[in-house]
Amino acid sequence: MGEAREFYPVEVAGVKRALPLFEVAPGVRIAVLNILGDVELTEAAADALAQKLADVDFDVLVTAEAKSIPLVYALAVRTKKPYVVLRKTYKPYMGDALSAETLSITTGKPQVLYLDEKDRALLEGKKVVLVDDVISTGSTLQGMRLLMEKAGAEVVAEVAIFTEGDRAKWRKIIALGHLPVFTD
């Protein structure tokens, strides 16, 4: 058996979790938040973020596939706004999709985000809020911003459960907490 896993304790809107630490580069570890299947945490985070968005004038919520999908859905229910999911794989039924490349810290590889043709009309000329579970390097966020620009949408806010890394870099992000990056 390998080494015992270390954990980092967090609290999100009154819900406590111990996030496992994973090495993402030599000597660099991050606390991994995975809300998939965690209804209690997702619902609490959506409640808190919806409150923070109460005074923001927007039309559509937008997220990137996959871990933040439950969060954007829960936010859509609370705000009564539609949501769009930017996909990571192109499918023929997506038609004339727009695309942008990004590099995720969790995959370590370039990824492409796609905006489905059907969602382009929903976004054109609209005010959008970008939603993510954790914003770490900002590359996924940058890919989402680029796609919104291509689609003719205006980004009016960016929200996440956590930001990570350099706290000063994320001053404009509406977040519920901040995670450190652990270096050996």
Question: How does this model look, in words?
Answer:
The chain is of the alpha/beta class and 184 residues long. The chain has a single domain, classed as Rossmann fold. Helix content is 24%, strand content 39%. It has a five-stranded parallel β-sheet, with helices on both faces. A four-stranded antiparallel β-sheet has the order 1-2-3-11. Strands 6-7 form a two-stranded antiparallel sheet. The longest helix has 14 residues, at 39-52. The protein is globular and about 50 Å long.
Kindly list the characteristics that best describe this protein.
Rossmann fold; 4 helices; 184 residues; 11 strands; single chain; four-stranded antiparallel β-sheet; alpha/beta
Number of helices: 4
Q: Could you say which overall geometry the principal axes of the C-alpha atoms support?
A: globular
Number of domains: 1
- Beta-strand percentage range: 35-45%
CATH architecture: 3-Layer(aba) Sandwich
Low-pLDDT segments: none
- Succession of helices and strands: EEEHEHEEEHEHEEE
The portion of residues assigned to helices is 10-25%
Overall pLDDT score: 90
Distance between the termini: 22 Å
Q: What oligomeric state do these chains adopt? A: single chain
From the alpha-carbon coordinates, what is the Rg to the nearest angstrom? 16 Å
For the sheet with most strands, the description reads: 5 strands, parallel
Give the strand order, joined by hyphens, for the main sheet. Answer: 5-4-8-9-10
- The CATH topology comes to Rossmann fold
Q: Structural class given helices, strands, pairing?
A: alpha/beta
The overall strand count is 11
CATH top-level class = Alpha Beta
